Amino acid sequence: MRLPELVIFDCDGTLVDSERIANEVFASLITEEGLPTSFAECVERYMGRSASSCVSDIESALGRPLRTELLTLRTARVDERLAVELTAVPGIREALDALAGAGTAVCVASSSTPPEIAFRLRRTGLTEYFGDAVFSATMVPNGKPAPDVFLHAAREMGFQPHSCAVVEDSTTGVLAGKAAGMRVVGLADLVAPDALRAAGADQVVLKASDIPGALGYQVSAR
């Protein structure tokens, strides 16, 4: 198996354990807006997608514009909880250390905004792994499942898409990675392994510490 030259990580749910909180908050706000939405429905419909595409779908389902500043409220409520509850995904530092030890370049490509990504990495102590190599869907015309943010990240980092691998925890992100022509490892947590495989993930892992092995790196047995 050829090793990737660049590994592109999604942020929420892949690097930081924020997706459960974010989806709880978003489901509640969408329901308050007048569109009853459960946690599971929120995960299925909106997880991994850009904010603008989520708003478009919600307004389409409602048949009217939003009555509230839904995204502003979501950011405020999520940030309030993340400031207290946010942690790094278990095993992700182990995975990042293994990639650093192998000399493999890494970056972040997320549907979140640059300030949101910066806060999450800073709060969990992961900033040191990425520095300025952080890219947001707000930097490109189309969010996931379009491949734009992954292609932008590869281009800015100086790598061809076929030499890159993507690590994602959502079907939307997996679809985007495959559309970019990249190898994709799915990290199964809120989304079932079979759903990630059906979206096109080349490998699926249940623990972040298993990411290097799935990418083809030799990992010492523990």
TrEMBL record:
The keyword Lyase does not apply. It comes from the Bacteria. It holds the Pfam family Hydrolase. Its cofactor is Mg(2+). InterPro entries: Beta-PGM-like, HAD-like_sf, HAD-SF_hydro_IA, HAD_sf, PGP-like_dom2. Keywords: Magnesium, Metal-binding. The keyword Magnesium applies. Belongs to the HAD-like hydrolase superfamily. CbbY/CbbZ/Gph/YieH family. NCBIfam families: HAD-SF-IA-v3. This is HAD family phosphatase.
